[in-house]
C-alpha cells in the first residue's frame, strides 16, 4: 500500500512527521506485536524554507531596510515532491489489509495536498483507493 502524489508540491517536515506518527500509532493498535509490517516515509525534508520577517507595528518603517538584504532567516524544512512520487508506503500481510488502509487514510488527512492511496499486491496487480 502506498501514498502517491497527484500534483507537484512541497510538504513541510511537521506535516510528514504528523502523518508518520499517525500511521505508527494506529498500526500498533491494529496489528499484534508478533505480526510483521514494514512502513517507510520515502521523502526527506532537505529544502530550507526562509522567511523575511517584517515588523508590522506602528512606526516600524525606521527599523526596516525594505527589501535590502531580504534573503530571510531559516524558518522550516520541506520535502519537494513531484507528481507521481511515492510519499510513504507500507507492506502488510493480507489479513491486516483493512487496518493498513485505515491507517493510510488517516495519514492522508495530515498531508495538505492531493494524494491517492494505491494497494499493490505482490503479484503486480494494482487497486486504487479514491483521492
TrEMBL record:
Among the GO molecular function terms of this UniProt record, one is: structural constituent of ribosome
* Pfam families cross-referenced by the UniProt entry: Ribosomal_L16 (PF00252)
Which UniProt key words apply to this protein?
Ribonucleoprotein, Ribosomal protein
Any one GO CC term of the record = ribosome
Any one Gene Ontology BP term: translation
Q: Which domain of life is it from?
A: Archaea
User: Which SUPFAM superfamilies does this chain map to?
Assistant: Ribosomal protein L16p/L10e (SSF54686)
Q: Which PANTHER family match?
A: 60S RIBOSOMAL PROTEIN L10
* Sequence similarity: Belongs to the universal ribosomal protein uL16 family.
For this entry, the protein name equals Ribosomal protein L16
**Protein source organism:** Korarchaeum cryptofilum (strain OPF8)
